[in-house]
From TrEMBL:
<dbReference type="Pfam" id="PF03009">
    <property type="entry name" value="GDPD"/>
</dbReference>
<comment type="similarity">
    <text>Belongs to the glycerophosphoryl diester phosphodiesterase family.</text>
</comment>
<feature type="domain" description="GP-PDE">
    <location>
        <begin position="3"/>
        <end position="346"/>
    </location>
</feature>
<dbReference type="GO" id="GO:0006629">
    <property type="term" value="P:lipid metabolic process"/>
</dbReference>
<dbReference type="InterPro" id="IPR017946">
    <property type="entry name" value="PLC-like_Pdiesterase_TIM-brl"/>
</dbReference>
<dbReference type="InterPro" id="IPR030395">
    <property type="entry name" value="GP_PDE_dom"/>
</dbReference>
<protein>
    <recommendedName>
        <fullName>glycerophosphodiester phosphodiesterase</fullName>
        <ecNumber>3.1.4.46</ecNumber>
    </recommendedName>
</protein>
<dbReference type="GO" id="GO:0042597">
    <property type="term" value="C:periplasmic space"/>
</dbReference>
<keyword id="KW-0319">Glycerol metabolism</keyword>
<keyword id="KW-0732">Signal</keyword>
<dbReference type="GO" id="GO:0006071">
    <property type="term" value="P:glycerol metabolic process"/>
</dbReference>
<keyword id="KW-0378">Hydrolase</keyword>
<dbReference type="GO" id="GO:0008889">
    <property type="term" value="F:glycerophosphodiester phosphodiesterase activity"/>
</dbReference>
Amino acid sequence: MKPLVIAHRGACGYRPEHTLAAYALAIAQGADFIEPDLVPTRDGVLVARHENDLSDSTDVADRPVFADRHCVKVIDGVEHAGWFSEDFSLDEIKTLRARERLPALRPDNTAYDGRFEVPTFAEILALLKAAETEGRRVGVYPETKHPTYFAHEGRHLDGRPIAQSLPQKVVADLVAAGFTDPARVFLQSFEIESLLELRRTWMPAGGVEFPLVQLIGNPRRGRPRDLAWHLARGGALASVYTDLGECWDDGLGEHTRYGHLLQPAALRWLRTQGIAVLGPSFEALLPDGPDGPVTALVEDARAADLALHPYTLRAELGGEAYGRRLLALGVGAFFIDQPDLGRRLADG
């Protein structure tokens, strides 16, 4: 079976990311799945942005009418200054226009600055359904961004709690669109609790079942934000994570990092919790380059019956060489910014 080509934020190598134009181009270039990152508006609508900070990916800074929305927030423990999706209604966000977020890497994409709206998740699903009528059955691979922040930590500009469940909203949008074929949906998150909520609560409530993907951040420095939040509150970790802490000697605590989740016992635990896929960076598999030795994670994931969907290949940064090596290792899918290159690689 050919590996799946996942268009990372659409065909973002050629168009500003998370726009309908980027997704449409990805479909035309042969992607098997398109990947939207999802954040909520003030009125609770999911829109596609890499972050809830709109500063780098839209022209919000050039809109005097929104100057008073600029503020400083702490998101996942890091201070950010900018304009944030949760402080804008959908109608207001629809007045903004997308910009290339990485102009130094992709200067040609700046020619499209100002042309495209910020799409809703519902509009993305409608695009996929329209493509299906033309013979292209493409799936969707959404990521819920900062679910702990939006559910528990975050505040609107006026100080009110945001208190929005992204796992609940993504399932609701999929069900409302009738986009419920489990062969065409993967749900991914860097946060463990978000995936556990999907499996235990929101997918059963919606009458659906989709494969879940545990994304892996920096193994040494990064850790799931949900775990940090529960630790800070002093809550009973076992009520959320059951026996995860028994997968290594020192249990769950401030020391726990993503690297702990890569230990064989933890990989097996993820599988018992209904996680079907592990999403590490490609560097976690090939830390010394595309021709270097492979880490034990490839075999450990296979032994735990977890598929590997590494992120993110970029043509400008050796993506083709890395892609060929990843395919030789037998990964089930890969994220790429240039879906046409991904298609050529997957087709051999």
